[in-house]
Amino acid sequence: MPQVRAERHINVDPATVFAFSQTTGDFRLKWDPFISQQGFLHGATAAGKGVQTRTVSRMRLGMVSEYVSYAPPVNVGMKMVTGPWFFHNFGAGWRFTEHDGGTQAVWKYTFSCKPAWLKPLAERMGGWLLGREIERRLKAFAAACEDPELLAEFRATQQGEG
């Protein structure tokens, strides 16, 4: 299965970076250039293993995904439950480790395409497109994590929840 990967160093601690990555709603839209909508399903109010979310991309593609791992502040993994017709399967993993006084963020998407006759071309195109998208998304995420105003807004929101 094809896999795309992006990596960035972020000058913020891993616990904050992990929590920032799990934001939803209006705040998520401030940093995530990929999505136009995202929300928890089936009454869930927070991320966790087994929780499902519905995400709509800015390209108007919808996907229901499920957390298959949730280990703050180190990693989170998702798999597609339902999604665009051309994906046979799709999974994502985001890893955050302490590095050089900050966080090393590594994001990966693994996927396969269908139908079988289209798979070779679709996976080549998908690798190129998703490779660009994951780089763009992680670059925006890293910049947002290091933005003093967004970081202050995020921390104030977190204090309000605690």
From TrEMBL:
InterPro entries: Polyketide_cyclase/dehydratase, START-like_dom_sf. This is SRPBCC family protein. It comes from Galactobacter caseinivorans. The lineage of its organism: Bacteria, Bacillati, Actinomycetota, Actinomycetes, Micrococcales.
